[in-house]
Design brief:
The chain is built from four helices and three strands; from the N terminus they run βββαααα. With 158 residues, the chain is α+β, with helices and mostly antiparallel strands. Among the domains are: 62 residues, no CATH class; 30 residues, no CATH class. Strands 1-2-3 form a three-stranded antiparallel β-sheet. The chain is flat and about 100 Å long. Keywords: Metal-binding, Zinc, Zinc-finger.
Length: 158
């Protein structure tokens, strides 16, 4: 106790200052729920006070009975609802954003080239021919490459 109604509760390595006068604890549970937290109950027991008197009035039987004092009238079936002809039809709002993560690349116009794309023809570094790469090189052109060029095949021996 630091002064009357003011306490500091130690729980492990944490410290929780609280005020019984203002019904405030630094953990925030008392203010949110309206029910004293365990830190404030510990202080109330030390001060020899009844914790039930610090609970919010919303949880009392008197408030419960006052709220539910009135009866709820039954609602007719949907077929028995009155019909209104002059009501405007309400349409849902237009969606502004699409579902999911937005795309990283911008949408290109028709005929605009894609940047950073490789060329379709692959050139071999071993033999210098088009149509295959050095990994799949068998010392010459592939079937596709033979159709494209009429040049003689030059192979390098390593």
């Amino acid at each position: 106790m630091s002064r009357p109604g003011e306490y500091e509760i130690h729980e492990g390595k944490s410290q929780f200052p609280l005020s019984l006068n203002d019904k405030i604890c630094s953990c925030g549970a008392w203010q949110i729920s309206g029910v004293p937290c365990r830190h404030s109950i510990r202080a109330m027991i030390h001060a020899k006070l009844d914790p039930h008197k610090f609970v919010s009035s919303w949880f009392s039987v008197k408030t419960y009975r006052r709220i539910y004092n009135f009866s709820i009238n039954p609602v007719p079936n949907r077929d028995q609802w009155p019909v209104y002809d002059n009501l405007p039809s309400i349409k849902p709002p237009r969606m502004k954003r699409g579902v999911g993560r937005p795309s990283r690349n911008r949408r290109r116009e028709e005929g605009e080239e894609q940047p950073g794309k490789r060329s379709k023809t692959v050139k071999c570094q071993k033999c210098g021919c088009f149509g295959h790469n050095s990994r799949t090189c068998k010392g010459g052109l592939t079937g596709k490459g033979m159709r494209k060029t009429d040049e003689p095949i030059v192979t390098k021996k390593s």
